[in-house]
Amino acid sequence: MRAHRRRLGLSQEDLAKRTGVSTSTIGKVESGRISHPRPVTMRLLADAFGLTGEARDTFCQRAEAPPDPPSGFQVAAQLPSDVYPFAGRAAELARLDALLAVAGERPTVMLISALSGMAGIGKTALAVHWAHQVSGQFPDGQLYVNLRGFDPSGRVMDPTDAIRGFLDALGVAPDRIPAGADAQAARYRSLLAGKRVLVVLDNARDAEQVRPLLPASPTALVLVTSRNQLTGLLATDGAHPLQLGVLTPAESRELLHERLGDDRAAAEPGAVPEIVSACAGLPLALSIAAARAQQSGFPLAALAADLNEASHRLDVLDSGDPLSDVRTIFSWSYASLTPPAARLFRLLGLIPGADLSTVAAAALAGAPVAGTRRMLTELTRANLASEHRPGRYTQHDLLRAYAEELASPDEAGAARARLVAHYVHTTCAANRLVYPTLDPIAVPLEPLPPGVEIDQIADQQAALAWLTAEHANLLAAGAYAAAAGQHAFTWQLAWGLDTFHYRQARPHDQTTTWHAAVAAAEHLKIAHVSAYSHRRLGEAYRRAGRPAQAFAQARTALLLFNDIGDWRGEAGVHLDLSMLAEQQGELETALEHAERSLAIMSGQSGLGELGKRTMARALNTVGWFRALLGDHVAALDFCEKALAINIGLGDDESMACTLDSLGYAHQHLRDHGQAVDCYERAIEIFHRLGHAAMTADALKRLGDTHHEAGQADAARDAWSRARDIRTKLKRG
Predict the structure, then answer these.
(1) Same domain, yes or no: 17 and 150
(2) Exposed/middle/buried for residue 690 (C-beta within 10 Å: 0-12, 13-18, 19+)
(3) Which of 63, 130, 321, 689 is most buried as measured by Cβ atoms within 10 A of its Cβ?
(4) Which residues belong to any copy of the HTH cro/C1-type domain (predicted)?
(5) Which of 238-247, 278-287, 621-630 shows the lowest per-residue confidence on average (mean pLDDT)?
(6) For residue 280, is it left (φ>0), alpha (ψ between -120 and 50) or beta?
(7) How many domains does the chain have?
């Protein structure tokens, strides 16, 4: 709409007078803050623009409500917040609008627009702004990912990770995501088949990084941004190029007026052209210059004078070296910060993850949380950081590069150590809340460094929420710790994330962390830690559907436990092997391993609490496989013994699993009343612990039991509850 208004040379006020539509409404429609305006509003605006025929119909369609999303498909809305205020780029926005119109005329060809240009030129701002304007035309959702193609640290996103994020956003439950990269890509393309979806691939490195993320459906539209021209994407994939250049002088002046306000810019008309000239039409430079003027309150002439004195630094703008440009531009804003905020700015460039919370930022700085919050506010006001979600902060890639350059080696090492310690301690505390009866950690935590706090997590649900919010950062912290040779931290993060990965059905992440932990354990030279690490890696492989690797790790763990005489560890590995055999349909072999585990535990005296837990697991596992093999009476005996131990220990998780086994045995002995009682008790515990999949399994068996007993209404209720849980799991 902005393009139509400017074509006629109208201001928003002029258009308001001509149509009777308020200036406020016009502004909100243009910025996308009103995604579906009233039909009468769009008709009045179409009249003012002189639109007729198909052009008028297309314009007015914006008022229509989007159709309901297809059933069984989760609509994603991943676009970052729109840029406000947004200035200039009328020609580029019109070009994108024209490409969108072409997409409608060519229904058999998927449209790709490759938006390229130098760093700081505003590629992301334009892509996101336009995406918000046209989001109503993509009722099946909008996907967005920052591919980090030019991350200064070299942390370029693997396309497989991007696809995994899209599958999560599209509602695919973690346990439904295929194991292989090719299979995941195929699932992604299948989900988008026939869907009207906008896919924004931001900051791509090259065509190779983009191609796995391209849908196969002609109903999808892909917008790619990159510093490179992506010639390969144009040559072989039919992408439409859109080279983004600098702002025109008029657009640059408009941006400054939007940022500073008309009154302030008009008060010093001679300074504005000098600032525009010195910034050379680079949107990022103009925005930071305006921010400096806003923050300092100094006359614009003083800012213009500073720019002219430093003009030799801006020579790089003409040479096309964006990194040097950004370094120079950021130095102006950095110099205006208070010393504490300047120090935090330097440290923000060091974080291994994509963002961080206020408490994590305080740990990074070794400063109190309240003071850190004030520093973060100062940085966001100076456009040197952004609060992309409430209480969570991030920086643009180039800002991070500049900040990291400013940090001294000693400063950087100490800050990263504090941040990783914060993550490790909080993760392990959260794991304890999620699984209170878990074995003690084999690599004890060192005391927190001075000035570092952990997140205060109240209960199990809060722990799950924290682990979910921080998961990507914790994986990044683990990768950093492994690369930096921080072996204890690497192992402790794997341990702290293990329960979350297990219950949230994230076997691939579990495999990654335990693979690093196995390597770390070799350096720690603690035999039990090595054995335990191989065992957990084997279990992760099993759950990831990689039986050969799972068996190899389990055998290694078994040998290591045997070498150090850890009979409890040996018994645990045999239980893992029993589940691996069950997964492969080898129930007799599964029972043999379970009985071997039970024999090991039965041959020991003075088991202690930990030994009793393993004994209870072995008894229940033997009972479960006896039941699966049809020996339900014997199964009851084993499982009842396990239940008595679990009740004495107060181990809710093992208790629920044993009650589920008892329910299965009673069900197949046609003792429906006992089966119902056991299933209902198991379901209550599973639900309380957050074991959604196990809750659904037990509900399904409860429904079967009610059905066998002739209780149709109760059966339908249990099955319905199980179906609802499964549906939620599929949607993520």
Answers:
(1) no
(2) middle
(3) 130
(4) 1-56
(5) 278-287
(6) left
(7) 4
Of the pLDDT bands very low, low, confident and very high (cuts 50, 70, 90), residue 200 is: very high
To which residue do tokens 């993550």 refer? 423
Whole-angstrom distance, CA of residue 624 vs CA of residue 632: 9
Q: What CATH number is given to the structural domain containing 137? A: 3.40.50.300
Q: Is residue 540 part of a domain?
A: no
Of 335, 361, 384, which residue sits at a domain end?
Answer: 335
The SS3 of residue 504 is coil
pLDDT higher than 50, residue 232: yes
The DSSP code sequence of 80-141 is PPPPSS----HHHHHHHHHHHHHHHH-TTS-EEEEEE--TTS-HHHHHHHHHHHHGGG-TTE
SS3 call for 392: strand
Rg (C-alpha) for the chain, rounded Å, is: 30
- N-terminal to C-terminal alpha carbon distance within the chain: 37
Q: Which helix (H) or strand (E) holds 301?
A: helix 300-309
The owner of tokens 């001075």 is: 450
The confidence score (pLDDT) of residue 16 equals: 81
Distances, alpha carbon 69 to alpha carbons 79, 134, 549, 585, in Å: 18, 17, 41, 39
Tokens at 365, concatenated: 């700085």
pLDDT, tens only, 369-423: 999 999 999 888 776 788 888 899 998 776 787 788 899 999 999 999 999 999 9
- Which residues, 6 or more positions from 421, have their beta carbon under 8 angstroms from its beta carbon? 363, 446, 448, 449, 452, 489
Q: What is the CATH number of the domain that holds 377?
A: 1.10.10.10
Which position has the token pair 């910034």?
A: 279
Q: Give the residue carrying structure tokens 């935090």.
A: 344
DSSP code, position 268: S
* Between 578 and 730, residue with greater pLDDT: 578
- Residues 49, 149, single domain; the answer is no
Residue 130 in any domain: the answer is yes
DSSP states of 149-187? TT-TT--PPPHHHHHHHHHHHTT--GGGS-SSHHHHHHH
- Range in 275-289, 593-607, 631-645, 675-689 with the lowest mean pLDDT: 275-289
> Is residue 277 included in any domain, yes or no?
yes
Same domain, 313 and 256: yes
- 8, 54: one domain: yes
* CATH at 26: 1.10.260.40
Q: State the average pLDDT over residues 634-646.
A: 97
**Are both 31 and 114 inside the same structural domain?**
no
Assign 153 a pLDDT band (cuts: 50, 70, 90): low
Claim to verify: residue 96 and residue 230 sit in the same structural domain: yes
Q: What is the mean pLDDT of residues 126-135?
A: 92
598 falls within a domain:
no
- Per-residue three-class SS string for 206-234: CHHHHHHHCCCCCCCEEEEEECCCCHHHH
Both structure tokens of 32: 């996308």
Closest to 437 measured CA to CA, from 600, 647, 639: 647
Structural domain for 262, as ranges? 249-335
- Which residue in this structure is represented by tokens 């531009």? 329
| Surface-to-core class of residue 44, CB atoms within 10 Å of its CB (0-12 exposed, 13-18 middle, 19+ buried) | middle
In angstroms, how far apart are the furthest CA atoms of the chain? 94
The residue among 78, 114, 89, 79 whose CA lies nearest residue 30 is: 89
137 and 227 in a common domain: yes
Q: Which residues, listed in sequence order, are joined to residue 141 by a DSSP beta bridge?
A: 76
pLDDT, tens digit (0-9, with 9 covering 90-100), for 304-326:
887 776 444 343 233 344 544 55
Q: In the listed set 243, 263, 283, which residue is the last one of a domain according to the structure? A: 243
Q: Which residue has the higher pLDDT, 217 or 717?
A: 717
**What mean pLDDT, rounded, does the chain reach?**
87
CA distances from 378 to 288, 326, 387, 542 (A): 14, 20, 11, 49
pLDDT in tens, 506-542: 889 999 999 999 999 999 999 999 999 999 999 999 9
Do 116 and 211 belong to one domain?
Answer: yes
